[in-house]
Amino acid sequence: MKDISIILFFFIIPMAFADLQVGFYASSCRNAESIVQQVVQKRFNRDKSITAALLRMHFHDCFVRGCDASLLIDSTKNTTSEKQTGANASVRGYDLIDDVKEAIETACPSTVSCADIIALSTRDAVALSGGPKYNVPTGRRDGLVSDSNDVDLPGPSIPISSLSQFFARKGITTEEMVTLLGAHTVGVAHCGFFESRLSSFRGKPDPTMDPALDSKLVKLCKSTTGTNDPSAFLDQNTSFIVDNEFYKQILVKRGIMQIDQQLALDKSTSPFVSNFASNGDKFIKSFATAIIKMGKVGVLVGKEGEIRKNCRIFNKRN
Which terms in the Gene Ontology molecular function aspect does this entry carry (predicted)? Predict the structure, then answer.
């Protein structure tokens, strides 16, 4: 599938909120978090879109088998991993995770998990993009399975009621769901994911889309040819900043994706959208709380799983 930065897709998994700890590596690898921060800062300086990429990676990893870095595993000639399946096929940012892992392995071999590197890298990128500066509890272990058959991720036109049910199965409330979808504040979507909403496709205007936005997107998507699939920022005002502008736009029917626009229209989610649109500080605080909670879904701890030496492959077994 084509890339769509930070469109959330979800899969029902068992709940596993384990006890993680802020500063887990304080004694075993005291420079771990600063190493992550340095690598992310260097990448962000030349590519601000890395925030969207890391948020998407974090979400997609957590909502298949849990936050266990199973998404990072490369396929082999015998096994197709999560990475190459469905919506995961266009997740990006793996090279940054590789760079962080290499630097940390030099300092502290076989100590820091790839799962924690994803969570920490995402946190640092969010902060660099003007979002909240939050502490990430660490101590996750890396999973031992990455199977394409586990990936069954609903698309961006899923009804709000169904999406809410997915979150509820993980102990995440509807308000927290709306908060996490606020990650679209730094994302893009390609025409293939929203073209069905446009008048050029429908033959008539979509009453839930601002006519001016429709005209703009129709022109954009007319240039789609072959492998070229143009993209549009989901937040068209502050496209690289983590803020509450996304909510303000969907309130005036300027949501690009159907799922985004429905957040502002569905009676179960619209009050939260209005609240975040009018109170940027509340969104920032709520986002930090929600993403920390999401980062605890399905984690492995203690002696479960492993600490990979290379995030792309499982450790060799004796």
Answer: heme binding; lactoperoxidase activity; metal ion binding
Nearest to 97 by CA among 150, 151, 58: 58
Residue pLDDT, tens place only, 266-300: 999 999 999 999 999 999 999 999 999 999 999 99
Give first-to-last CA distance, the chain, whole Å.
37
Which candidate in 43, 56, 58, 60 is catalytic? 60
Q: Which residue is associated with the tokens 């892992």? A: 101
The dihedral sign for the CA sequence 219, 86, 99, 234: positive
Q: Which amino acid is at 176?
A: E
Q: Is the pTM of this model over 0.85?
A: yes
List binding-site positions for Ca(2+).
61, 64, 66, 68, 70, 82, 185, 235, 238, 243
Q: 210 near 261, Cβ under 8 Å?
A: no
Residue 60 is among the residues annotated as catalytic for this protein: yes
Query: Which ranges in the chain are annotated with CATH 1.10.420.10?
Result: 160-291
Q: Give the Cα separation of 21 and 276 in Å (integer).
A: 29
CA dist 236 and 249 (Å) reads 8
Q: Looking at domain 160-291, does it have CATH number 1.10.420.10?
A: yes
